[in-house]
Amino acid sequence: MKKKDYFKLWLLSFATWGCLIPLRGYYVGLYGATIILTIAFALLTWWAMKKYAPKAGFWRVLIPLLAPWLFVELASDLIKFIFIREDFYDSLFSMPSSVMPPFAVITIAIFYHYRKKWLFAILGTLCVFGVTEGHKQWVEWIRYGDYPTLSVNLADCEVTDSTHTFKLSEVDAEYLVLDVWSSGCGYCIRELPEIQELHDEYKDSNIEVVSLFACYRKGETFNDGYEIMKERDCNFPLFAVVEKDDPILTRCEISRYPRVLILDKNRTVIFNGSLEFAKRKMKRL
């Protein structure tokens, strides 16, 4: 393998990574970007192994393919961990996006080198799981795994609607789903039509889906949340609480939005997490 070709392989690896990495935040999100990066580097690895490995050797081809993660992502995560500890949460959150593409590279490289179908089947299954359900489970755990999910009773907690203040125990529903959001969370606002669809789906069941607007800006009221929902043609029930001292938020340790709570008939929290996993819980109910 000529030095020129070896340099091209390094350049191609970094160029592929550099072109696709922005997808994480701006176009398809972290989950979609992980899938695209994994597929792209799996294909790149197979091509590189066929073209260069017979002459250059297995390891000499593998290292450039892993270089973006070894020398950029891993280094940046270590810097965050050592010097900027408050940003390390973001590194944990995006870990599947950093781990699964190089895992796919190793999987394809090992299969090319050893040509063992059973080995590829095992590693390939792990890879597919990692970029699909495994990724979702990891993000859910990082976001909500440290928060209480059971036994927190909110029956005595008060909320406000357009006319009066009342306790959650007064809401007539066997199960109560609270979509907790704030005006400063753009993702929460984009998610409102999806909550509307969920409310419409369950409106004739024993599950009541409502919106809980956390007033975090000074002077914000129920009406501010109502106007945001109205702009998006959402008309499902809306409650409001004041963020600073509200017991719902403090007891459930809610500091990041959005958050979905599911309460049983005693208004005890039986789920505390994301909308996607809340939907799974609601189907089981």
Determine Rg (CA atoms, Å): 24 Å
Helix content: 55-70%
Major beta-sheet overview: 5 strands, mixed
Low-pLDDT ranges: none
Distance between the termini: 61 Å
Class computed from helices, strands and strand pairing: alpha/beta
Specify the number of helices. Answer: 12
- Principal-axes geometry comes out as elongated
Query: What's the quaternary structure here?
Result: single chain
As laid out across the biggest beta sheet, the strand order is: 5-4-3-6-7
**Mean pLDDT score, rounded?**
87
| Beta strand % | 5-15%
What are the main properties of this structure?
single chain; 285 residues; alpha/beta; 5-stranded mixed β-sheet; two-stranded antiparallel sheet; 12 helices; elongated
Describe the structure.
There is one protein chain. It contains twelve helices and seven strands. The chain is α/β, with parallel strands linked by helices and 285 residues long. Helix 10 links the parallel strand 4 and strand 5. The longest helix has 28 residues. It is elongated. The model has no long low-confidence stretch (mean pLDDT 87).
Write the layout of secondary structure elements.
Layout: H1 3-20, H2 23-26, H3 29-56, H4 58-83, H5 88-93, H6 95-114, H7 117-131, H8 133-144, E1 158-160, E2 165-167, E3 175-181, H9 186-202, E4 207-215, H10 222-231, E5 238-242, H11 247-251, E6 259-263, E7 269-273, H12 275-284
Parallel strand pairs: 3-4, 4-5
Antiparallel strand pairs: 1-2, 3-6, 6-7
Helix pairs in contact: 1-3, 1-4, 3-4, 3-6, 4-6, 6-7, 7-8
